[in-house]
Amino acid sequence: MGEPRKNLYERYEPIRRYVEVGFWIVLMTLQAAFSTVVAIVDASTRAAVPHPRWQVATWEVSSHFVLLLLVPALVATERWLAPLARNHLVRFLAWHAAASVVFSVVHVVAMFGLRALVYAMAGSHYDFGGWVSQWGYEYLKDVRVYASMIFGIWAYRLFVLRLQGEARVLDAPEEGVAEPSPVLPPSNPVLAETEGFEPSMPNVPPPQPVARPERFLVRKLRREFLIAATDIDWLQAEGNYVGLHVNGHDYLLRATLTDFLTQLDPARFVRVHRSHAVNLGRIKEIEPMDGGDARLHMHDGTTVPCSRRYRDALRAG
Asked: What domains can you pick out in the chain, each with its CATH number?
């Protein structure tokens, strides 16, 4: 019997990283080439004193080259801020606005640094002009570039999720094993004295055990997997999904991290970050960081951030 036929995502996954990197390189190269041609034509027909072509090419290529280098930071920013989009829209927009400012500052400084270097190598001097006024002009362009790139990264991430096929919990939580009920004090005071009970003890019903699933049956890529709750190494919020990291494999469930943690044993699973939770039994080492934060080294070789506000909960666990 031959191996089952791979679906589209399984065929795409081995080349996914090459496609992603290649896409941004090709995109920025084409945009730089097109912008350079347009700028050269514009400079030769409209400018009173036409600039040399190498200078015009330096302006455009330096800008797009820095944008290419900033793509990984934008991917990380989009993933980091994605959990806020659902319930904290104002904070989501505010953080993106602040990130766009940082993006523009880094872009402008690196871009003009490259231009100054090329000019110096050509025996010339690059004059940036007034920093404040020039940066304001550049920011108006950069904020549009930032928004379009973030939107593209978000759309691609959703496309990959749909292509991959989200995992879903198929079975309901298993019933917890009922604990034996404690012996209740008799209502007869005389009998209470003979059996050693205090008549004043209230007749309190026993606490009901919380039903939590011990296993999750999930479907991914048209296959079904049985996952033990104790095998989950760590969890990560990803927008409207929560990523389960289990023995080097990732499973995406349509749920929020907060909601999903209610189905897990709080004595074993602890939230350590706004978008991360860990299985305490899978922590190998805790590396303190500056400012009170920490980096958790897991037994599976991955690292998970731990923010200062959750350090106390981690110590208590």
From this structure: 8-164 (no CATH), 217-316 (2.40.50.1020)
Q: What is the pTM of this model?
A: 0.62
Token readout for 158 is 């959703």
Q: What are 24-75's pLDDT values in tens digits?
A: 999 999 999 999 998 888 877 765 557 788 888 999 999 999 999 999 999 9
Q: How many CB atoms lie within 10 A of CB 153?
A: 20
The total of other beta-carbon atoms located within 10 Å of residue 229's CB is: 20
Residues 268, 279: Cα–Cα separation, whole Å? 6
Look up tokens 């951030």; give the residue. 305
Q: Which residues, in sequence order, are bridge partners of residue 232?
A: 246
- Number of CB atoms found within 10 A of residue 220's CB: 18
Rounded Cα gap, residues 232 and 263, in angstroms: 13
